[in-house]
Amino acid sequence: MRKFPRIGIGGAVLSALVCVQAARAASQAGPAGRAPAPAGFSKYADIKKMLQDLVQTHRGNARLVDVGQSDSGDRIYGIEIGSGTVRNLVVGTHHGNEYGSTEVALGMARSLADKPIPGQTVYVIPVLNISGYDSNNRYEKAGSDYFDPNRDYPGPCGTAGPFRLKSTKALADFVATQGIVASATLHTFYPAVVYPWGISSQDLSTPYDDLFKSLGQMATRESQYPVGNSTQLIYPADGTYEDFAFWQHGVWSMLFELGKSHSPSKPEAEKMVAVNVPGIRRLLENSPRERATDHAFRGRCDTRLRVLDRHDE
Ligand SMILES: [Zn+2]
């Protein structure tokens, strides 16, 4: 069994971290992130066209789904694949600059359209943060402000939101109305595959740690990514989709920090697809067919840990 160090930070370290984190947040939050997308990657209009083409070529297996309106004015599209009663979900690009996550989501959609999972309907949403994707920005624009979409959900130890973005509200409503049972959310980079709790707390266990670990191991057979608790393996973050979906609904939610760069070359992105799509399929195939029942958070929040959230994965 993998052991992780317990988190403990002293006052001096904390105050230094506060300064570093504040400077980093200020440098990332605004239009400064508008660098051109890496060479060879698409705009959201192209992603929409790819989904439409996939539906055209896989009639019977795949249908286009409108998840809701984005603050950009675009509709957020996904693809519904298969016809089973268990409904699972794959979401890419909460963070607009994480191009590898979009590619792996599209790879997953193609794989599922070719061969749906028996007994399941799987929804794949390749791009949640449309304005961020089109401008190579982690953050998503709403009015004149920018928000981190994966801090915009309600959570047991707080949130930077909730729901200041239409995209996150649309996804939360989608999870509720569709009765999603398991989900894989795709990010870059670290690499790692992590499970709840990922919040500002020293009490990080759920009754399902062993199940989450075993699902993570199945998901990483090809990639060999480390598997663990989100707070301990990466950093604590309040208001993420993963903790929200488990805490609110008992969704078996796992987060993939894919690859080693936010801007992979096309060959690197292809490798990320090749080593992750089989594992994500295996994760969905082996997840429980019903939601978790014991998903309340009974620990204590430790707000001092918030400064460890780097907002960069
Ligand atoms: Zn991310």
Quick structural gist:
With 313 residues, the protein is of the alpha/beta class. It has helices spanning 11-29, 44-57, 99-114, 130-135, 166-178, 209-219, 230-233, 241-249, 266-286, and strands at 62-69, 75-81, 86-92, 120-125, 140-142, 145-147, 182-188, 192-195, 227-229, 252-258. The chain has an eight-stranded mixed beta sheet with strand order 1-2-4-3-7-10-8-9, with helices on both faces. Strands 5-6 form a two-stranded antiparallel ribbon.
Account of the protein in words:
The protein is α/β, with parallel strands linked by helices and 313 residues long. It has one domain (41-308): Zn peptidases (Aminopeptidase, 3-Layer(aba) Sandwich). The chain is built from nine helices and ten strands. The protein has helices spanning 11-29, 44-57, 99-114, 130-135, 166-178, 209-219, 230-233, 241-249, 266-286; strands at residues 62-69, 75-81, 86-92, 120-125, 140-142, 145-147, 182-188, 192-195, 227-229, 252-258. Strands 1-2-4-3-7-10-8-9 form an eight-stranded mixed β-sheet, sandwiched between helices. Helix 3 (99-114) links the parallel strand 3 (86-92) and strand 4. Helix 3 (99-114) crosses helix 9 and helix 6 (209-219) crosses helix 9. It is globular, with a radius of gyration of 18 Å. The protein starts with 10 loop residues before the first helix and ends in a 27-residue tail after the last helix. The relative contact order is 0.17. The structure holds zinc ion. Zinc ion binds at residues 94-95, 98, 150, 187, 313.
